[in-house]
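Task: sequence design from structure.
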């Protein structure tokens, strides 16, 4: 790293919940020379990634790929489907839901923010019954869209999207369903078509194990119909031009060629492992991480076991202990980055990412760094989280990923 005039021995541990570590295979794939984005080779690459990414979203409908961060894809979802002054029902699960709502305001929409009071909403998943009730009261169908975050990265809570779909259907409401799974995709089970999602927003730098820089809108037929009537100004984000040119594997502008090499490699890796195996791996590592937190005697930010995130775990520090001071100490002593507390949780918790290119030993090393850092911070721990996580992993053995030669 440029900022060091020395080499810190060993690897940096990037244990934030995105960007997640980029595997060497992907880094190498991205180092190929940039090619002509109008040439034949590019068209083949474009068709491959456009088709492959559909399998990750579990959709047969178009997935638009933007050279932008996840925030850009949030904007694309809203401006392609809505008109100035439209009411949208958003749900406060945490910091990212709050940012999406602010964006809706900035775009001239009228977001209504549902949620549990105070910090409660930041400890639980989306309450689908609250959405159903609000939609039933909206007899004129003034609400044009329901927007929820699937995996709330600021808290470590993964909401039940199928339940939100059922709530909209039960209320017989016409609103579009839009879901942010920027940090859930390719780590937590996600089903765009089956769950009847109209626009799914995602990004590259979390479960897909890529650097930041590309993002996605998976788009239903109903969303594309809505986009024909939507009058929010848009140009760069316009779906129809992109979907049209994507038919041959091209884009209306210069796409992010080298990141698409990376995406192609990531698709091979994820689909090669098998999505179900990827999800099971994440669930198992998350459970081991929670076993560690419980053994330390610390509290997990998510207060509902039914919606624990397989992607990250939020760890609350004891009253009076600044979680950012613990993070700083861990960074300085052990060269490991942990996620900071965001928004309402600033200083109250840190986040351990266990997503993407993470295995048993990666997690064990990360937990060891946490445990040493907590001790050095003078925090009284109930017991060894490292021992508890090892116990979990050895009593829940995964199918071996490798086979040695006989
Ligand atoms: C990371 C993240 C975002 C923001 O994505 P950027 O790529 O930083 O723009 C939005 N929502 C969620 C849930 C995220 O995890």
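Answer:
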């Amino acid at each position: 790293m440029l900022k060091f005039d020395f080499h810190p021995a060993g690897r940096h541990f990037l244990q934030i919940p995105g960007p997640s570590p980029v595997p060497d295979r992907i880094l190498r794939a991205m180092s190929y020379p940039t090619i002509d984005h109008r040439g034949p080779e590019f068209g083949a690459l474009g068709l491959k990634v456009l088709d492959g990414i559909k399998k990750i979203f579990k959709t047969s409908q178009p997935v638009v790929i933007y050279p932008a961060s996840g925030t850009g894809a949030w904007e694309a979802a809203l401006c392609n489907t809505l008109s100035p002054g439209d009411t949208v029902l958003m749900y406060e699960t945490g910091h990212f839901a709050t940012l999406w709502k602010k964006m809706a305001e900035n775009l001239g929409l009228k977001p209504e923010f549902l949620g549990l009071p105070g910090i409660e909403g930041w400890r639980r998943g989306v309450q689908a019954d609250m959405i159903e009730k609000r939609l039933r009261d909206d007899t004129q169908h003034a609400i044009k869209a329901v927007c929820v975050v699937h995996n709330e990265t600021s808290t470590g809570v993964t909401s039940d999207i199928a339940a939100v779909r059922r709530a909209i259907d039960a209320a017989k409401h016409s609103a579009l369903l839009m879901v942010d799974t920027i940090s859930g995709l390719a780590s937590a089970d996600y089903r765009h078509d089956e769950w009847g999602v109209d626009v799914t927003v995602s990004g590259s730098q979390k479960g897909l194990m890529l650097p930041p820089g590309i993002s996605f809108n998976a788009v239903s037929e109903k969303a594309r119909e809505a986009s024909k009537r939507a009058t929010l100004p848009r140009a760069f984000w316009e779906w129809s031009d992109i979907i049209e040119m994507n038919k041959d594997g091209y884009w209306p502008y210069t796409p992010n060629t080298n990141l698409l090499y990376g995406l192609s490699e990531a698709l091979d890796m994820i689909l090669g492992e098998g999505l179900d195996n990827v999800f099971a791996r994440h669930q198992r590592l998350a459970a081991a991480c929670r076993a560690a937190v419980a053994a330390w005697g610390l509290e997990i930010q998510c207060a509902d076991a039914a919606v624990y995130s397989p992607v990250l775990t939020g760890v609350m520090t004891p009253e009076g202990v600044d979680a950012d001071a613990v993070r700083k100490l861990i960074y300085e002593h052990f060269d490991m980055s942990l996620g900071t507390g965001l928004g309402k949780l600033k200083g109250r918790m840190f986040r351990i990412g266990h997503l993407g290119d993470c295995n048993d030993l990666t997690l064990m090393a990360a937990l060891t760094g946490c445990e040493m850092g907590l001790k050095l911070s003078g925090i009284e721990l109930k017991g060894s989280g490292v021992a508890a996580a090892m116990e979990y992993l050895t009593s829940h053995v995964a199918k071996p990923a490798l086979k040695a030669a006989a």
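The chain has two domains: 13-20+274-395, 24-271.
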